[in-house]
Fold each of these.
Amino acid sequence: MPVAPIPISEIEPVSHQRKQCESILTSYVRRYLGKSDFFNERNSISDKLLFFGRQSLLVKLEDTLLKKQSVGIFGVRKSGKTSVMNQISSLLRLKSFPVINIDLQVFGEEAGIRNRIFKEIVCQLHKLLALSEDTDEAIDRFSSISPEEYTSENFVELFEKISASLTQNGFGMPVVILLDEMERIMPRPADSIEKVKEFNVIMGCLRALSQEKKILSMLVTDVYPDCNRVNQWPQKNISSNPVYKFFEEFYLAPFKEEQTVDMLQDIGNLMGLEVGELLAKDIHDKSGGHPYIARQIAHYMYDNLASEESLLATPMSEEDWAEMLIDFDEISNYFEKGILEHFSARNLDIETMILEKLSGLIEDSKGMQYDRLIVELSRGFSKRRSVEAVSHLSKLGLVKQTKSAEGRFLTLSIPILATWMVN
């Protein structure tokens, strides 16, 4: 019998709204019972069936969060940060822990984020309480005491009251708040003092609920760990960052070969498509284990090279790879906008320079000696900044470091990124 799996994280928030439930059901039936290309997933993954390679990380994150410690997930764009967040949300909900999901894209560009974020958190807590009591009376009861304007004091007090009611209705503690894309609300040098103060109030309250009240854990995502690394703001006469060194940091590493092979073959099975092991290994090698790039390569091959027997087995020739980089805009756009333009926007010129230097050594399997690179970079940058940049790119999974009897060597982790940059 055909089955359409629907994540509980999508059902639970709308379980009392018939039209939205019908809409979700219809979309998943069409998705799984129709002919879909599951390689071509450009948004975050909610489906457990399409989530691969991060199971051990989920175990670590769950254990850390339930110990009332907060965590940050960092990595390049499209590395799977929001997908990991979606999965941890589903896991914790299944175990009856209250989970609050906040997409910070909605809040970052306008003033007044403190009140809007506090209101959203309280609103989601209300909904969880109403579901647990199976009545709208819970929402009415707490809404009647919800203020129009939130202060630190009344937000913390209300959070404690609703959390206590949730515990009485069978929920576990702590409440877990998931904050996606912290960069959207992170203070910038050009921001007003008022906006920086709002950030400090928001994060200060959440930290107090975690450290002092012991009823909250946070999981945040971002490309860079600025929220955890910046202590003092550039604005004058402003308190320091309340979440400085507060989060345990996790970086999303590239997949190992067996993880990429399993992902491509399992997705192929969902599509009635056989993906050969040699081909899957070739895709892993070219993508460097970056799951989004690997899936997009498979998507391109499925569209252009799949046989009538629903088989993807033959690795592409070098000419095919070069043609793909010319014809397939998705990967080129990702390299340009998702990596290089993002570095440029943050004035990370040295990171871009390292990628350019290493891409020029594409034919040299050993790459560039670490000490030589640091010396070359130090002609235009400090040695400390040069070392930080190499470390940064390594944590992001863009540069790979290997050691041999001859010393430490650096190569680009994603070979087709090197090919694209050279061309």
Amino acid sequence: MKLWLWGDNSAGQIGDGGETDRSSPVQTITLGSTWKSIKSGRNFTVALKDDGSLWTWGDGSDGALGNLTTNDVSSPVHIAQGKTWKSIGGCSKTEDSTACAIDSSNKLHTWGENNEGQLGHNDVVDRSSPTQMGTKNWSSASINTFHGAAIDTAKKLFLWGSNYNGQLGLNDDVNRSSPVQLGNDNWNMISTGYNYTLGIKSNGTLWGWGANDVGQLGLGNIVFYSSPVQIGNASDWKFVEAGIGHSAAIKNDDSLYIWGYNDVGQLGQNDTTDTSSPVQVSGSWDEVSCGYEYTVALRSDNTVWAWGYNTEGQLGDDTVADKSSPVQIYGQASGWKAVSAGLEHTVALAAESPPSKSCSSLSCPTPAFKCYVGVTESCACAKWKFYTAQCTRIQQSLGICSGTSGAYVPAITVCNQKLF
């Protein structure tokens, strides 16, 4: 699959070799690569290729890129070379930068800031490269700003890190710098938010605990809880995402529910009223991700929609205007497979050959070419000029340009996908 990004690019987290914000999807410099999964964090991006190699780029603060430095990087860097990776866990999206991944032998590795023991290594020492956490075998993991959680291959849940708000679910407020098992129930999914945690048990029930000042636990109140409390009575939940102040979950029938903080419309209800209980967002959905006061979601028809805060173009609709109800991202109409919202930038995966519309009836003079405009059926003739530096980048990744300043880019993509 192909990797696309948009939104804030102040630290190079878009991965296109620059630091210019993007309000519509662009590809990383590594245009020809195939990607398996993605996660966006606090101004950085983590991605896994089909060959099991792990790549990072963006803000290197706290060692978040795992490349043995704290420097920013504006294009993908291969880290932990020689090791094969299976999956990427949730990353921190605000304040301290942390990340995690599971290797092919089911061992969990964490890296980044560790001031609260959130890396799970029984200390508070930062790590600037992926470091194995114990010897247990894991199936999934999530680390947010100050705490982490993971489900082992026996479906048992473990948590560690900061616990000031009861987010470890252990019925106290004592920090833990190494994993501690929470009860003996089996769990299917876990997501760590900003000082709170959400999870789905193997029986399909949804649970939350920790901070709840804006109703992010979905319990109909703003009471903090230091042990798991069931959210509603339903037992058909399949996906959950804990954000910074708002949360979302999807049921087996693909219905999407969302709750919590709503100051700029991140709940998608066409208003800015907080809600402490789940409310439905119309449509059929496969995946949802909560960023900083915005939401991005993948519909069952493989289209991507977003709503909420948009100052950096993180909604991908080619504007910087906030939206309080879902809008479809600009450019490619469908063919999307995965999405991930970070602090203020978004990452998505699309099929190798996404569905396209036809402009066959349009006749364009040379060297202009046919392209699509927006997400409608509108077509236009267009041509791009580029400069030597841009040509060099493209030449390195695609080998299509001669290096001559002012040469025309051939019709290799639709015009609204803005390579530059």
Amino acid sequence: MHRRRALALRSGGNPLFLTELAGNPSVTDGEALPDSLEGLVTARIDRLPPPARALLRAASVLGMRCESALLDELIATSPMSISSLDQVDGLLAREGEEVHFLHQLVRDCAYGGLPFRARRDLHRRAARLLGLRATTPDLVGLLAVHSFCAGEYDAALEHSVTAARHARAQYANTEALHHYRRAVEAGARRTPEDRDRRRMGRLWWELADIQIDLGDLAAAADSLQRARRLVPDDPVHRARTALSLVVERALSDDHRNALAWATRALRDLEGVEGGEAAQLRSEAHRRRALARLGQGRLVAAARESEDAVRTARSGRVPGELAHAVALQASILSELGRPVDLDLLLSSSRHPEVRQDLRRSAWLENAIGVTAFNQSAWEISREAYLTAERLYVEMGRPIDIALQQANQAEVLIFQGSLEEEIGRAHV
């Protein structure tokens, strides 16, 4: 009874800790109980026969779960064997064609017990083996991890960027965030002569874009400042990062500084020619209009939106033109001036616009605002709902919440909010 009570107290209600304590033959009535679950698991691993312990630690390099065939290949040149699985019962198990750890803590303790040099060597061998297989997005991500842990930072950078951009294209933003972080860390660890400042500046900007989408605005601001410091002499890069800082400041309701950054982007682009410069110049005017709108200065916002439309037309940037037209329509609507809603709807259907989910979502929101001010409730609500769906697909929680609030506002003005809530609870 005393031992059971002691085990229950020491485990703190943790089932795994209690199981390990109860099954530990070294814990007797007369001995002090281990202080932590980590210590207990580590002690159990240390008591394994050397081949089984080596197998467990090799498997830990491959993660929580891996293919049995890959583990076999990894240990092929060593005295250990996958047949030693019988000796690690309760820690590592086979399931079909895979081997998996029974608990994350077991994997962490096994991995932590590997000497640094042995760990690097196993990661290097794992990278070589994975590199011989067909290249899929999932394998590229694994290659990036193993290359990084092996200290092969050139390969880690290449694979991390490929994996990050693939995840970004799929709107798997959290996954993309991890890959981008590894990419910039790998880039920082390369020898100085191998560093490409322009490329790393671009990667910090791409990382910031993900952080903005995930709502981590402070991290985004830091990443953007790093991007700017890396490439101080490229006006297009400086304008691009300045406009991202406009977005970060606007989402923080700091419209004064958002306006300042948009103005700085225009200064950076003075005298710069080319398609990307034209697109950024038009966006800068549009961001200035949005900042004025955020400040409640509607007349000034209307003037800025006219500049945005004019610049987009002269620069022949159809996507930005659709944006500018939509923004101008919403501002004119706020001012009580007439708006051609049909023209707005048709301009937002440009093929280039519809290929870009982010642009489409913003335009749907603008349509919702304009239709709301025209008392076109159903058009407004449908546009907000479409925008919400697009933001869900992109994984942007702040914008999702804003679109839901917009829909609620429409229902309030329709006088049907309570009816809609009641229908939702049926």
